Amino acid sequence: MPDTSQTASRGFTLFPRLSGAAVAGILIAIFLMAFLILPVAQVIYVAFLDARTGAFTLQNFQDFFSTTLFRESFVNSFYVSAMSVVVATLIALPLAYITTRFNFAGTAAIQALGIIPLIMPPFVGAVAMSLLFGRNGSINLLLNQYFGFRIPFMEGLNGVILVQSIHYFPFILINLSASLRNIDRSMEEAAQNLGSHGVRMFRRIVFPLAMPGYLAGAALVFIKVFDDLGTPLLLNVNNMLAPQAYLRITGVGINDPMGYVISFILVAFSVFSLWASFLFMRGKDYATVQKGGGGLSRRDLKPSEKWLAWGVIVLILAMVLSPHIGLLLLAFGTIWSFSPLPDGFTVQHFGTIFTQSSQYVWNTIVYAGSAALIDVVLGTAIAYIVIRTKVAGRKWLDYMATAALAVPGVVLGIGYLRMFHGIQLPFGLGQMSSFWGIIIVALAVRRLPYALRACMAALQQVSLSLEEAAESLGASRASTIRRIVVPLMTGGILAGFVTSFATAAVELSATIMLVGRSSDAPLAYGIYLYMQSPAGRGPGAALGILAVVIVALGTYLSQRIIERERARQTMTGQQH
Amino acid sequence: MNRMLTLSAAALMMTSAAAFADTVTVVTSFPRDLTDPFKAAFETAYPGTTLEVVSRNTNAAVSHLQETRGANTIDLMWASAPDAFEVLKEEGLLAKVDVQFEGIPDAIGGYPVHDPDGTYFGFAASGYGIMYNTRYVQANDLPVAQEWEDLKRAEYNGHVAMSSPSRSGTTHLTVETVLQGEGWDQGWATWKWISGNMNTVTERSFGVPDAVNSGATGFGIVIDFFGLASKASGFPVELVYPSVTAIVPANIGIIENAPNQEGARQFVEFLLSPEGQQVLLNPAIMRLPVNPEAYANAPEGFPNPFSEEFAPGAIEFDVDKSGVRYNLVNSLFDVLVTYRLDDLRAAVAAVQKAEAAHAETGNEEAAALIAEARALVEAMPITEEQSLDPSFTQVFTISRAEPDTEVVGRQAEVEQSWDSFAVENYRKAKELADQAAALN
Fold first, then answer.
1. Are A253 and B397 inside 8 Å of each other by CB?
2. What pTM, to 2 d.p., does this model score?
C-alpha cells in the first residue's frame, strides 16, 4: 500500500486534475484489464457467437435456459452454495467465538489449524477423503463390520455440501475472527452496564458489530462454492454449473459454445451476489471509533466450561482435519486398499520426494508469497478507493477483481497463452507466456478476491473520524493511510495474505497451462506428476503433506506476529 | 527478489544455450515412471542430446499447442489418446516426417498402428480390460467378471466404475469397439445395463484405477497398463482381458515447425527401434510393444497381442466409422449415462429387483411389464444410420463442419431432446418395473 500511495502522490503532481486515489484506481484497472478481463474475454467471447457462421448471436443463451439439464444444474449449484454457507457458519462460529472471547490456551494453534482445510492438495486430497469417508472408506468399513450399515458421506449433493463446508469454512473463521478482534471493548462494557449479557449480548451487540467480517466470509464461501468445480468433480457430481462448464470446455477437440455460456453466467452471477451483499450492508455503519482496546474483553472459563469448549473444539477439528489425517496415513502408509488402515507404514515416500522436491518447495514459496503480497497491496488499495473515495466507477474495481473467483483456471490459462504468447521479454527472459513471472500474476489474479474481501471488511471497521482527526492535525493523505489506516487494518490484511498464500500454494488448474519447464514448477504440479501413476500415490501424498506443513507454518508465524503486535499496541496504549 | 531475478535470468540463459546444443523438447501426458526410463535410454544412445520433458494432461497439451502455434517451442507430442492426435493432425499441427523403422506390423487386433498419412506413430499397444480389487471381491463374495456381458448381471450392482468416453480417448475406443462388435442397438443396450451397475462415472481416466486400488469400487473398466502397473506397485488387484477388446496404440508425433526436427525424428526412431521397444517391458511401464520380436524377452505371463490366444474375438475395427461419429458417441454417452446416472441406476435397479422377484413365479403379466421396461431402458433416440449421417454428426463439430453440409440443429438443442427422451424413458421403465415387482 505505501508503494501505491507514493506512486499515486507522484501522479498527483504530474496530473494535477486527478487525485492520487484516482491514479491508483486507474493503474489497478489497467492491471485487471490486462491480466483478467481481456485474457478471459478472448476466450469466452465465443459464447456470443454462432458456432457455424461466427456472427454475433444470443441464441446460445436462449439454449442455456431452454435446456433442462442446465436449469437443474443452476438450481443444484444454488442450493449447494446456500447450504454450504449454513454448515460452514455452524463450524466456524464456535471456533471464532471461543478463541476470541475467552482466555484459551492454544488459540494461535487453533486459528492456524483452522486454515489447514483450505490447503487441500489436488488429487491426493480426493483419494484421502474417499479412503476415509467413501463408500468403502475406513469409517464405513468399520460401521459395516460392527453395525451393518453405511453412511453415504460422499454421495450426491449432500456429499458436496459436507466437503465444501469443511473445505471453505476457514473463509468465515478467518474474517469473523479478525472482525471480532476489532470490536471495541467499550461497546461490550456499555452493553453490560445496561444489563445485557450472554447469548443476548452476542446476538444483539457482538455479532452485528462483527457483521462485515462474517458477511465477507459468507459471501466468499457462497461464491466460491458456486464456482468451484474440484469438489463436485471429485465426487463425480456432474449436475452442477461449474463442472458442466469445465467438462464442456476441456474436452479434446470439442468446441461446444455452451461451456463458455456457462462460464459467462457464473461470472455474472458472482458479481450479482456480491452486489446483493453490498445492498445488504448499505446504510449501516460498522465502524467504532476507539481502537487498541484489545478487542473483546477476554474472560477465564470455569473448569466445566473449559471442558465443554475443549470438547467442541476437538470435535470440530477432528472433523475438519480428517482429510489431512487421511493424507498423513497415505503419505506414511505402504498399500492402503479396502481396509480401515494401511497395511504397513514406511518413510520411503518421503525419501523418494526428498531428492526432487526442494525446487518445488522454493518455487511454491516464491510464487505463492509474491502473489499474496500483490494481492494484499491491491486489496488494500481497492478497499480504500471503494470505501473512502468518490472516484467514479470505483465499485467496478471491486466487481472486476471479484469476478476472478468465477473464472475457471483453465479459461484464465488459455487466455494468457492467447494474449501473451509470442511476446518476447527483454533481458533474455524468453517468451512472456512461458516466463515464470506470469504464473505469479495468474495466481495473484485468481486469489485477489480472497485478500480483497478481508481488506474490505477490515476497512469497514475503521472509523472515518480517526482519519479526519489525523488530517486535521496536518497529516497528508498519504501519511494518514500509511500511519493510521493500514496499521488499523493489519489484522484483516494479514488474514487476506494468509488465505491468498495458502490457496495459491496448492492451485493447479491455471498453472498447469503456464508451466514452461519442470524447473519452474510449483508443488501442486509435482503432486500432479506423481498422481499420474499407481506407484506415485504415496510420494504424491508426501508432497501434499509438505505443502500443508509449509502453509501451516506460515500461518502460525503470522498468527504469532498479530498476537505480538496486539500485545505491544495494548501496552503502549496503557502507557499513554 | 533482485538476486533471484538475476539467478533465474542466468538459469534461463543456460537453458537457452543448451537449446543450441541438442535438446529435444517433448510434451507428454505420461507419468514419470514411463518418461524417465526412456529419457535415460535415449540420452545414453545419443550422447550429447538432452530430452526435455514437459508434463501436461492431454487436454492441456492440446490447448497449449493450439494456442502457441505461432511461436512453437515443442518438438514432440507423446500421449495415449489417438483422438488428441487426430485433432492436432486436422488442425495441421503435426509434421509429416520420413521416419525409418522396421519389423512393426500395420495393424494390431484390427486397429492400425500408425497414422496412414504418416503424421503420428504408434509405439506401444494397450488393450482394455476389467480390473478388480481382490479384497473387495472376496469381502463381497463376488465372482470375477470375465466378459463385458458379465458386468450386466444384477450381482454387480453398485460395484463397477469407468470413465466417461468424452474424458478419455481410450475409454471412447472401448465404447466404440462394443458398438461395432455387437451392433449399434445391442451395443448401447450393453453399455446401459453395465452403467446401471456403476457406482461412478469418473471424470479422469486415472480415477478408475485409483478407485479400484483404494477399494472404493470392485471392478473398473480400464486400459491394461493401469491394472498391470497397479499390480506391479503392490496393490491387491488383477486384470482380465475380455474376449472382445480394443487394442489401442499409444502415439508420438512430430509438431509442425519443430525447433529441433532432426532430434525429434531421432527420438521417434529410437522409440520404434528394438532397443526402445525393450524399455516398455520395465515393470513400472507395462505397455505392450508394437514390435512382435520384443516379446522374446518378455517376463512370464506378459500378455502378447500377437499370439493366437489373445482376445480371440477381436473385431476388425472400422476407423472411418469411429471417426465420423466420434463426438456424437461421446455426447450421446454423456447425455444418456453420465449426466443421468442416478435415473438410469434407479431404472436398472428396479428392473433387476422385479426380475429377481419373478424369477420363479412365471407371472406373465409381470414378465410383459418387465419386457416393456427393458425395452424402455434400451431405447435409443437415434439410429445407426443417423449416427453416421454427416448432417447429424457435424452438429457436434460445427466449427469444423464442411460448408456444404446442411446440419440439422445446434448441439444444445439436440442434447436437450435426447435428455428429455432418456429421463422420460428411465422414469417410465422404473414405474413399470416397480409395478411388476408389486405383482404376486
1. yes
2. 0.84
